[in-house]
Inverse folding.
């Protein structure tokens, strides 16, 4: 069995993205944004495990044409999201118009990797059994947003993560934004909340603060990661996924936590300047880190 450096597991979605400037129908989901971003870095062995309906297989065909290794888990339906953004791109209203099947242990028995990113879009995408199984193969990374969404009558409601303590003890990297952090821990203070998440088992806690930067905690140090001011704000969809892409890519390559965080933040800045996935180069990211105006987080 081939062992990959990085594996992303997640549903590819149908997305309707509404902003004050436009309405766009496009594929989406962590699996989509992560794969399209990381394909620009050819010095890493990456694979995607995606679940979607047959009607969306053209998205997989397109990824494969761009040399992305894709394993498909068939689903009766693809996830269908509607994202409506206000002028402030940090504010979003979301609905789910269709759901896909959860992932299973059987579907992933032939997949091996050093790092698994579980791209959860909804709370029931990944069971505790599956997380435990994958954690015996490699490090687990999770973006919390999917675990904090419940769908009722197509509307998305924020919920706490039902079995968070059982799952988080298997998680090496967890990304949360400030609101998700508060839902999970009941705390608004970044330091105290990060310490709580670490106490539950998370080794590297990534707290993103939108345009104000991000903070990373590893149990010993708090790293203030600057935001890099964009030239224009066009579409924030997928920015969190892009941040995670940059961070895991750099960590997989041996970068320090701080350097990985800066690379992640600069990638997210480049992504927000256009619609669709990140479409830059490593050199573009490094140039932003060196030359863009920085906003240092305060906490």
């Amino acid at each position: 069995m081939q062992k990959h450096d990085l594996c992303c597991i997640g549903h590819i979605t149908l997305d309707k993205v509404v902003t004050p400037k436009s309405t766009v129908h496009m594929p989406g989901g962590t699996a989509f944004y992560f794969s399209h971003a990381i394909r620009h870095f050819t010095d890493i062995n990456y694979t995607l495990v995606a679940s979607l309906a047959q009607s969306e297989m053209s998205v997989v065909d397109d990824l494969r044409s761009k040399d992305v290794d894709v394993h498909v888990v068939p689903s009766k339906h693809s996830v269908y999201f509607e994202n409506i953004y206000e002028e402030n791109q940090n504010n979003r209203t979301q609905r789910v118009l269709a759901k896909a099947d959860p992932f299973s242990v059987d579907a992933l028995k032939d997949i091996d990797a050093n790092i698994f990113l579980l791209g959860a879009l909804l709370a029931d995408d990944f069971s505790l059994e599956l997380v435990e199984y994958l954690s015996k193969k490699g490090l687990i990374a999770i973006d919390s947003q999917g675990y904090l969404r419940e769908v009722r009558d197509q509307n998305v409601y924020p919920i706490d993560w039902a079995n968070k303590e059982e799952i988080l003890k298997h998680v090496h990297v967890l990304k949360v934004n400030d609101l998700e952090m508060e839902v999970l821990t009941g705390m608004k203070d970044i330091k105290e909340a990060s310490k709580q998440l670490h106490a539950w088992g998370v080794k590297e806690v990534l707290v993103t603060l939108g345009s104000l930067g991000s903070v990373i905690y590893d149990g010993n140090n708090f790293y203030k990661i600057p935001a890099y001011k964009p030239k224009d704000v066009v579409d924030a969809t997928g920015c969190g996924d892009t941040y995670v892409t940059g961070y895991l890519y750099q960590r997989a390559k041996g970068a320090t936590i701080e350097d990985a965080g800066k690379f992640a933040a600069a990638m997210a800045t480049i992504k927000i300047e256009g619609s669709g996935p990140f479409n830059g180069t490593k050199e573009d990211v490094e140039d932003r880190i060196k030359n863009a105006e920085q906003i240092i987080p305060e906490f």
In short: The CA atoms of residues 21 and 234 lie 8 Å apart. The radius of gyration is 18 Å. The first helix runs from residue 30 to 38.
